[in-house]
Write a structure and sequence with these properties.
The protein has about 80 residues and is mainly α. It is built from 2 helices and no strands. The chain is elongated, with a radius of gyration of 21 Å.
């Protein structure tokens, strides 16, 4: 009967970010285009959102503004590969 040895698993921190797809396949090119378009839309939406914030004041409006800003910011970071 073989003796099993305990294996210690460490947590890796501060690892470099890598692209989602590393091969130059047609699917990878489509994904990169999709991410670029999505990021462009999000950036433009955030610019518009900032102008809306300056145009109106109100408690419910402010709450919805911050929630929408959070969602758009997350989507932008996702498209940049930072999530």
């Amino acid at each position: 009967m073989a003796m099993e040895q305990a294996v210690t698993v460490g947590v890796v921190r501060d690892f470099p970010q890598r692209p989602i797809v590393q091969c130059p396949s047609p699917e990878a090119k489509k994904l990169e285009r999709f991410r670029g378009v999505a990021k462009n839309l999000v950036v433009n939406a955030m610019i518009t959102l900032e102008s809306m914030k300056r145009a109106s004041e109100g408690a419910e409006y402010q709450e919805n503004y911050h929630l929408l800003h959070h969602y758009l910011d997350y989507l932008k970071r996702f498209c940049e590969g930072r999530v």
